[in-house]
Backbone:
């Protein structure tokens, strides 16, 4: 293998050069208030907050932990500080449509003023109106009206009684009414026998007289309710007059206070009119209230003059920035609450509660996209509010038809808010695809990077960021070496030596743990070893499963050879992801071949344990065989591939190089060196392509080899395009440095098979033939033999059929 | 109901029917009876004219509220009056229990005034109300705008009494004072001109600290009394019976003109 050199030490780990970090520790660094690595997202947010057009709301997308919320909040607060506090909003009683409370917009701080003015008004009226009605003048006027009515009726009845007397008839009271009785000559009610003796015409005359009197009495009785109504109206008008006198001055003072606000003045006009019309309500306060089960219904007569200030920006200098952690329908658009009273649920405009859209109106609202989408009807409510540009409080139970009781329909409030949704990318793409309204309502995508370039400048920026985090989180300062180690770890997280992960949550976790260890050790500064300890401890806490798997390999329960050679058997490498931790696991892949129809059986797929991408890799290698060998012959081989002792789903195509090499070994009869492990995907041209988790895979095989014993022959073959991703563990690097372990980078299948078998892969000569002793030559020969045998078998079979 | 035959020192008789005004008068009477620990007798008079009318073939009754006419016969009148008597009995029972007084009901058939006068001859205090005249309350309690508890200054109608220095007048004055205090209304004492000063002095002695207004009248005559009361109205008028028997004309005239209960005190 002289023509293949293992990767040098420098290629395995890209250290951060501390000599190029111009500070002793982060305390020396200047205050840093910027954002690193997110120019695209920052530009989008600034654009989104700057443009004042419909639909230019923002979707901040990216992975969790990339600082989206912090960055968005900071920018929004900066923008909000440049704007004035928005209007206050109040709900007041609607005197024309009582079930539709009226919304009043007032300058910031005026809501509370109006409320206290109205409270004072109610208090003042509570004494002013009764006083006005307790005057002797009022009572005498009422008495006069009553007397007029009494006299009017009495006169009418007296006149009728007098008229009856003139006709010798007496007006009588019966238990339930009145009657007319004819009198005899003695002035007594005539006896029936006397009446019977009267001449017929006289009897008829008496009956006619009585009947006429009854008709007149009927007219009077029917007239009485009309007179009573007239009197009541006069009394009401008198009440209005007195009420107006008592109210006018008090309301006038409030109007003067709010004269610059026409809506408020109009409302106060309505209040004045209503008070005058319902002036008796003020007087009725002292009357007993209905009682049920010992509970008295509260008098609510004056309640309607209260003011429900749902949004109060009193004393605020900036636009609001609101974040809702639980964006339910009612939390967003507000709700109408109820209270139990006399065994039933009642509500009024004072029980209207503001939602987040109200709170954020005139400013910014930050919402977690997944939470909005998973709360019933929250997403629809948000879209409707943004689309209509108004906040309509509609109880969900009413919208769904679950509530049959009378409820309120508060007047919608105009909405002027910039909504920022924070969510995963996949949500953004799904919403774009499946929700036609989404693109109209969230036109600005702020895409947060998860990685940034790693160079001298960015290293320094990163150091500043670490310094700021240390201050914010009240952590010890980090010395130069600690910063360097975190930068290196960030590169490892980014899986790229030229990148830094800006997945800050994990970085902050490491810093906090390192701070803990440093303080535990009585140190006043965080250094490299504290950071390393934090990284190692975190892995240790999570690697129980890895230990169990490696133990099984060490004890031979899981069969992995790390020395010797075998035909059709190869060490592949997979990665197991446990959420916060992933590790490499070597896997034995075997291949068998026989005469067949050109089909490569992927046992993983046949047993539905292989994912689509893995199956794709197998099909590629199958086509690679067909297109590279024995082109003039049909592919007359059947092969099977399997991940031995694998009982879970195998996904990804990173084993396709290993599978192809195992197949070539089986076809060529050349043994594969078991001290090597292979990872990489292939294309139909035989080129080896990059894969993910390269560090974990190398480390996984290294751990197994170290457990068995490092021989110096053990190595891992990786795609050359993955070399830039190498940030290997320190112990791996040391082993390589000592010559105990190696890493090879390959670009083609030929390179890999040559390393694995120790036999030249071979290239086609001028006759388009592979050298007979080369790997490819042996493979082609085998395939040609198989094709010939298949043809012979077919011919024999045909002849037998003909016979 | 308590035993009507039980003898008590004082007897208060209230002459009533079932009109609302009469029932109010009954309560007032119960109040007075409780005050003087008297035996309260309710004298329910069944108007004999109603029975005579009911026997006529064309007798009709007009409903007080709707004006609708319906036939009126003896049975209907009898049943209605019996129902009234039952209600009065229940009311008396309630008053008896609440005020711890003895009560009884007496039902007679006759003419209201003559029956009332006859009762007045036999008892200490007789309370009469306007039931035979056409004067009626025009607006009932529910219809009327009466939200404020009336104070003395609020114009509630005063309680009136006539004072002539007799023992009956003294008792009438004491009762009038009690009612005015209970109702928080003004007490007005009518006194004849010819002995005004002397009688005012006597009345003041009897009333003690109780404030009252003393109003002179030319003579102790019904018209004079009515003229005095008519301007201010009256919530109750106490009439002390003189030494001579009560003129039939006087209470009849007063009953016809007054819209408040008349209390005849012996």
Residues:
């Amino acid at each position: 293998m002289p023509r293949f050199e293992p990767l040098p030490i420098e290629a395995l780990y890209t250290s951060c050069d501390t000599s190029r970090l111009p500070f002793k520790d982060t305390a020396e660094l200047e205050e840093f208030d910027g954002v690193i690595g997110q120019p695209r997202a920052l530009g989008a947010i600034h654009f989104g907050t700057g443009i004042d057009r419909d639909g230019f709301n923002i979707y901040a997308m990216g992975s969790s932990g990339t600082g989206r919320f912090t960055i968005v909040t900071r920018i929004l607060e900066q923008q909000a500080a440049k704007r004035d506090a928005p209007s206050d909003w109040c709900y007041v009683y609607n005197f024309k449509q009582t079930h539709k409370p009226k919304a009043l917009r007032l300058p910031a701080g005026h809501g509370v003023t109006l409320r206290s003015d109205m409270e004072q008004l109610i208090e003042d009226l509570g004494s002013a109106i009764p006083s006005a009605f307790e005057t002797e003048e009022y009572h005498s006027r009422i008495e006069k009206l009553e007397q007029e009515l009494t006299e009017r009726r009495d006169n009418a009845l007296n006149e009728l009684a007098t008229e009856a007397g003139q006709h010798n008839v007496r007006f009588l009271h019966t238990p339930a009414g009145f009657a007319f009785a004819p009198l005899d000559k003695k002035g007594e009610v005539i006896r029936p026998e006397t009446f019977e003796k009267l001449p017929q015409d006289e009897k008829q005359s008496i009956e006619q007289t009585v009947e006429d009197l009854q008709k007149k009495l009927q007219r009077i009785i029917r007239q009485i309710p009309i007179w009573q109504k007239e009197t009541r109206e006069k009394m009401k008008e008198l009440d209005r007059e007195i009420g107006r006198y008592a109210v006018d001055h008090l309301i006038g003072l409030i109007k003067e206070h709010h004269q610059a606000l026409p809506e408020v003045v109009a409302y106060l006009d309505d209040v004045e009119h209503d008070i005058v019309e319902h002036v008796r309500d003020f007087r009725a306060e002292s009357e007993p209230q209905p009682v049920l089960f010992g509970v008295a219904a509260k008098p609510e007569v004056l309640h309607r003059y209260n003011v429900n200030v749902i949004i109060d920006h009193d004393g605020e200098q900036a636009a609001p920035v609101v974040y809702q952690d639980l964006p339910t329908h009612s939390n967003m658009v507000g709700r109408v609450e109820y209270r139990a009273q006399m065994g039933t649920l009642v509500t009024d405009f004072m029980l209207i509660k503001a939602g987040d859209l109200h709170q954020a109106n005139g400013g910014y609202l930050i919402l977690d996209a997944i939470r909005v989408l998973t709360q019933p009807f929250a997403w629809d409510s948000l879209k409707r509010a943004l689309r209509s540009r108004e906040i309509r409080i509609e109880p969900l139970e009413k919208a769904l038809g679950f509530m049959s009781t009378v409820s309120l329909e508060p007047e919608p409030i105009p909405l002027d808010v910039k909504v920022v949704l924070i969510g995963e990318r996949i949500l953004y793409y799904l919403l774009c695809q499946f929700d036609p309204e989404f693109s109209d309502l969230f036109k600005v995508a702020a895409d947060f990077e998860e990685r940034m370039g790693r160079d001298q400048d960015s290293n320094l920026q990163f150091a500043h960021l670490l310094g700021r985090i240390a201050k914010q989180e009240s952590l010890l300062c980090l010395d130069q070496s600690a910063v360097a180690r975190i930068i290196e770890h960030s590169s490892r997280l980014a899986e790229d030596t030229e990148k830094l992960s800006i997945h800050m949550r994990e970085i902050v976790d490491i810093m906090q743990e390192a701070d803990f260890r440093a303080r535990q050790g009585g140190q006043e500064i965080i250094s490299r070893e504290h950071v390393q300890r934090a990284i190692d401890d975190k892995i240790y806490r999570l690697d129980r499963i890895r230990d169990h798997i490696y133990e099984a390999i060490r004890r031979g329960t899981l069969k992995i050879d790390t020395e010797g050679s075998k035909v059709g058997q190869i060490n592949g490498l997979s990665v197991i992801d446990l959420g916060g931790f992933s590790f490499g696991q070597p896997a034995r892949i075997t291949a068998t071949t026989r005469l067949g129809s050109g089909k490569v059986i992927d046992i993983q797929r046949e047993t539905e344990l292989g994912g689509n991408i893995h199956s794709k890799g197998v099909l590629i290698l199958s086509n690679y065989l067909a297109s590279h060998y024995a082109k003039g012959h049909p592919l007359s081989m059947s092969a099977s591939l399997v991940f031995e002792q694998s009982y879970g789903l195998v996904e990804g195509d990173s084993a396709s190089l290993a599978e192809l090499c195992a197949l070539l070994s089986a076809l060529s009869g050349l043994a594969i060196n078991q001290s090597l492990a292979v990872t990489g995907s292939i294309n139909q041209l035989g080129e080896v392509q990059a894969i993910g988790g390269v560090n974990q895979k190398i480390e996984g095989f290294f751990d197994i080899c170290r457990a068995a014993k490092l021989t110096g022959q053990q190595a891992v073959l990786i795609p050359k395009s993955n070399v830039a991703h190498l940030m290997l563990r320190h112990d791996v690097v040391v082993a390589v440095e000592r010559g105990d372990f190696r890493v090879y980078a390959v670009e083609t299948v030929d390179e890999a098979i040559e390393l694995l078998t120790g036999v030249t892969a071979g290239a086609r000569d001028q006759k388009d033939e592979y050298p007979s002793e080369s790997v490819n030559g042996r493979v082609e020969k085998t395939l040609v033999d198989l094709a010939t045998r298949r043809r012979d078998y077919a011919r024999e079979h045909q002849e037998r059929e003909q016979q | 109901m308590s035993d009507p035959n039980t003898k008590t020192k004082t007897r208060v008789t209230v002459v009533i029917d079932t009109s609302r005004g009469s029932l109010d008068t009954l309560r007032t009477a119960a109040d007075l009876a409780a005050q003087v620990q008297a035996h309260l007798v309710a004298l329910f008079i069944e108007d004999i004219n109603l029975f005579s009318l009911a026997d006529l073939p064309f007798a009709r009754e007009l409903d007080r509220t709707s004006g609708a006419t319906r036939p009126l016969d003896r049975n209907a009148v009898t049943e209605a009056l019996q129902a009234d008597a039952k209600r009065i009995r229940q009311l008396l029972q309630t008053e008896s229990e609440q005020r711890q007084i003895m009560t009884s009901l007496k039902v007679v058939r006759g003419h209201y005034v003559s029956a009332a006068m006859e009762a007045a001859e036999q008892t200490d205090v007789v309370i009469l109300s306007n039931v035979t005249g056409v004067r009626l309350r025009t607006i009932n309690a529910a219809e009327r705008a009466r939200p404020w508890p009336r104070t003395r200054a609020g114009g509630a109608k005063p309680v009136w009494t006539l004072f002539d220095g007799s023992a009956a007048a003294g008792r009438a004055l004491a009762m009038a004072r009690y009612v005015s205090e209970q109702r928080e209304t003004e007490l007005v004492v009518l006194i004849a001109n010819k002995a005004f000063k002397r009688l005012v002095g006597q009345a003041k002695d009897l009333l003690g600290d109780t404030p009252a207004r003393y109003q002179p009248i030319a003579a102790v005559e019904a018209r004079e009394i009515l003229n005095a009361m008519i301007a201010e109205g009256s919530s109750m008028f106490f009439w002390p019976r003189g030494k001579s028997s009560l003129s039939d004309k006087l209470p009849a005239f007063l009953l016809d003109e007054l819209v408040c209960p008349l209390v005849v005190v012996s």
In short: Residues 1 and 90 of chain B are 9 Å apart (CA to CA). The radius of gyration of chain B is 19 Å. Chain B touches chain A through 48 residues (CB under 8 Å).
